[in-house]
Amino acid sequence: MAAAAAAASGPAGSRSGDASAHDPEAVAARVIMEATASAHRPIRTLRCFLAVLGDQATGKSSWLSFLQESKFSAGYRMTSSPGLQVLTVVAEEEDAATAKERAAAGEALTRVEFHCLDTQGNEAFFPLNTGDVVWERADAVCLFYDVSVRDTFTSLSKWRRRLSEQAPAANDGFVLCNKMDLDDDMHAVDEEEARAFAEAQGLDFHACSVKDGTGVKEPLQALAARIARRFNETVEAAKAAASK
Ligand SMILES: Nc1nc2c(ncn2[C@@H]2O[C@H](COP(=O)(O)OP(=O)(O)OP(=O)(O)O)[C@@H](O)[C@H]2O)c(=O)[nH]1
Ligand SMILES: [Mg+2]
């Protein structure tokens, strides 16, 4: 049965610049270890605070609702203050053979608990109070834009800067281009340009349509896999260092 062996004391998984990242005890302290209810494999849960940022009406809240409820609601209700939504994603392993090997060795399956901060795109609600705990805890960022409104893309540097000022550790994440269901002649941002921007920011690039459900889950799946991989590498490096 499930038994929490260590409560998480803070965000985990995506903080690559953290000096404690190579200290196995510090890493373990940030992880909720569970002797799992699953009959097959123990499950390790990592936690990541993800700030979802972007201009007004780009689809941030719709995306998070879709991930939670698997449905799209066409109405627009403006977000006026940040709200947290928790989504758990199992980190897929590199390939089926590796997964099988790890399962046979009794190694834990990793899942990432994303604490997603749905923010307000409307400038009327800025600046935030400094010391906003939720922003400061961000480990990763999702920069959202609407493919049919160029200004929402050009704003992304501003959103990144705004987050970096409050959460310098939020150096992982992705750019998410939304509303890909709209006709090509409405597309105001070239994908290559957006990919180059994401790369320059050290972020992944994904495109989706929350409206038709295309590409909606992939960004978090990819981020979860990266966080899990980094965690495993950190643990392996610590083990290797300890055995020297
Ligand atoms: N065509 C289309 N419309 C979408 C898509 N995703 C969201 N919308 C619509 O875009 C509008 C804004 O969506 P929201 O999710 O509220 O936008 P937001 O980014 O949370 O906006 P703020 O809370 O003001 O920052 C709504 O009318 C949605 O129905 C999509 O993939 N395609
Ligand atoms: Mg919103």
In short:
By secondary structure, the protein is α/β, with parallel strands linked by helices. It has helices spanning 24-29, 60-69, 96-104, 133-136, 150-154, 156-166, 191-200, 218-242; strands at 32-34, 43-54, 83-90, 109-118, 140-146, 172-178, 204-207. Strands 1, 2, 3, 4, 5, 6 and 7 form a seven-stranded mixed sheet that branches.
Topology:
Layout: H1 24-29, E1 32-34, E2 43-54, H2 60-69, E3 83-90, H3 96-104, E4 109-118, H4 133-136, E5 140-146, H5 150-154, H6 156-166, E6 172-178, H7 191-200, E7 204-207, H8 218-242
Parallel strand pairs: 2-4, 2-5, 5-6, 6-7
Antiparallel strand pairs: 1-2, 3-4
The structure holds guanosine-5'-triphosphate and magnesium ion.
Guanosine-5'-triphosphate is lined by residues 54, 56-62, 74, 76, 78-79, 120-122, 178-179, 181-182, 209-211.
